[in-house]
């Protein structure tokens, strides 16, 4: 009987050690849950970005307004009959800043 109790106590101690510090322990479980939360946050951010890019692709494929807007802002396009004015401001003197 004594050996049985001693064996059970040693087995219980071994299982407790594995539960707290071993492979698959509670600490490792907590770390994995934190990584899952970070990954889900990153996934949500990337999903929002992908949705915005998909909407822009659809807009560029279907509408000429988006193409014209992009050409105006990135390439400096002007249509015939329009006048392009560029305003250049002189830098302020040092003491006026």
UniProtKB/TrEMBL annotation:
Membrane protein topology class: Single-pass type II membrane protein
Any GO BP annotation: FtsZ-dependent cytokinesis
The keyword Cell inner membrane appears for this protein: yes
Coiled-coil ranges (or none): 29-56
The UniProt record lists the keyword Oxidoreductase: no
GO cellular component: cell division site; cell septum; plasma membrane
Segments on the Cytoplasmic face: 1-3
The protein's name: Cell division protein FtsB
Organism encoding this protein: Halochromatium salexigens (Chromatium salexigens)
Gene name of this polypeptide: ftsB
